[in-house]
Amino acid sequence: MRWTNCCSGMVVVLALTGCGGAGSAADTGQFVDAPDHDEAVAADVPAADSQDADAVTVTDPAGDPGQPDPGQADPGPSDQGAPDDAAGDVGPSELDAEFPGDTDVVPEDEGSSDPGLADEGPLDTGPVVCPAVEWVAIPGGTFQMGSAAVTTCSGGSSCAIPVHAVAVPGFQMNRTEVLVCQYALCVAAAACETGGNSSAPELNPRVAVSWDQWKLYCAWTGGRLCTEAEWEYAARNGSAGNTYPWGDAAPTCADAVYGTDTCGSPSAPSPACSKPAGNNAWGVCDLAGNVVEFVEDCYQGSYDGAPSDGSARQTCDTYGGNTKVTKGGGFRWNADNLMAAARGDDYPGVYSDIVGGRCCQAQ
Fold first, then answer.
1. How far apart are alpha carbons 294 and 345 in whole angstroms?
2. Which of 39, 71, 337, 349 is least surrounded by Cβ atoms within 10 Å, i.e. has the fewest?
C-alpha cells in the first residue's frame, strides 16, 4: 500500500434486508445530530434548509435512482437538524443499529418463589438490522483542488499540485463508507464476490474488496465509484475549501478514527459514523480516517493535465500504469493523511484490509 505521509441535503434510501436474516425488510438505522466542533466550517458554506420535504426520494438497487429536486436547499453546517422523512428522523449522526425484539421489560422467573426475580438468562434480541444505504445530495460548485501541503506520496512531493480550479456538477454520495452488512446483501444477490472481512462486525466499513469489485457493488446500488474531484469537493465542504471535513482546525481524537499516541493505535476500523464531530457540512461520515477509500481515477504523480470538470482521470502513469487513487486516510495513519487533499494509490486487484469503498451517482 502506498500512502501520503505514511508513518508520521438529499438522502436517498435503498430498502435492504436485515443482515442477520434473509427475506425481512431492513429498518433504517436511526441517527442523531452531530455535536458542534470547536472550529466551525468556513462561513461561505451555504446554509441548508434541512426540513425541505423534497430532500428525500427512494430507489431500489435494481431500478433507476431517484432524481433530486433541482430546487433543493443548499447545505448547512454539520450540526444542523436532519431532514424528516415519512419514517422519521434519518439525519446525520452516529450509526445506530436497531435490534428487533429488544425490550425494556425483564421477564419474571416463573419458577422462582419471588415473582419479581428476573430470569438470569440473556434476552434473545434477534439479528442486527442493516441500515439502508443513504444517498446525500452534494450541490455542485467550483473549488480549488490539491494542496502544496501534501508533501510525501507515491508519485513524489508534487503529487497534489498544481492546485487547480475544478467545476463539479451536483452529485449524490453515500453518507457512510460501505458497511459489512450492506456488501453482504450484494454477495447474497450474486452481484458481488465474498471474501475479506465478511465476518467483521456488521456495522463496520467493509474492507478487503478490490477496486474492480467496488465498481460492481456501486453499480448494484444504482451508483458508481466517486471521482477523485467529487470526493475531495465533498471532503472540503465544496467551495468553502476547508482543509478537513469538519473545517480547518487540526484533527482531534473526536474528529476521526486514526492512529496516534494520543488516540491510540487502532488495529481495525470502528463502526461507521462513530466520530460525528468529523462529519462534513452535509452530514457525510468518515471522509477523514477509519478506512481508506478507492475512487474511480487512475493515479498520476501530479495534477498536470487533470480534468477540470469533475470527471475521473483515465490515464495512469505509475507502477505499470494501472494504480488507482485512494483517499481519506485510515485507522493506521497519522493526522497528516486526514487532509482532504491527501492522496494515495493502490492496484485495482488488491484486497487490502485498510481499503474500503463509497459510492456516488449523478443527480
1. 8
2. 71
Question: Distance between CA 232 and CA 229 in Å, rounded?
Answer: 5
Rg of the chain, C-alpha, whole Å:
21
pLDDT tens readout for residues 38-72? 443 343 434 434 333 333 333 344 444 344 343 44
Helix (H, G, I), strand (E, B) or coil at 14: strand
Q: How far apart are CA 134 and CA 71, in angstroms?
A: 20
139-170 tens-digit pLDDT? 999 999 999 998 767 655 678 999 999 999 99
Q: What is the DSSP letter of 212?
A: H
Is the model's pLDDT at 254 over the cut of 60? yes
Could you tell me the CA-to-CA distances from 208 to 52, 98, 275, 293, 357 in Å, in that order?
Answer: 38, 26, 22, 11, 10
- Between CA 91 and CA 191 the distance in angstroms is 29
Q: Compute, in degrees rounded to 10, the torsion defined by CA atoms 161, 167, 171, 174.
A: 20
Q: What is the mean pLDDT of residues 130-136?
A: 96
What is d(CA 247, CA 43) in angstroms, rounded to the nearest whole number? 10
Q: How many CB atoms lie under 10 A from the CB of residue 315?
A: 10
Cα–Cα distance measured from residue 30 to residue 268, given in angstroms and rounded to the nearest whole number? 24
d(CA 287, CA 176): 9
> Would strands 355-356 and 292-298 be described as parallel, antiparallel, or unpaired?
parallel
Mode of pairing for the β-strands spanning 88-89 and 324-327: unpaired
Whether the model pTM is above 0.85 = no
Question: DSSP secondary-structure letter at 232?
Answer: H
E strand intervals along 51-108: 56-59, 84-85, 88-89
Sign of CA dihedral 71, 283, 179, 215: positive
Report the distance separating Cα 133 and Cα 64, nearest Å: 15
In whole angstroms, what is the distance from residue 136 CA to residue 47 CA? 15
What is the Cα–Cα distance from 181 to 200, expressed in whole angstroms? 9
CA angle 81, 85, 89 (to 5 degrees): 45
pLDDT digits (tens, 9 = 90+) for 193-234: 987 677 789 999 999 999 999 999 999 999 999 999 999 999
Angle ∠(124,128,133) on CA atoms, nearest 5:
165
Give the number of other Cβ atoms within 10 Å of residue 255's Cβ. Answer: 25
The whole-angstrom distance between residue 214's C-alpha and the CA centroid of its chain comes to: 13
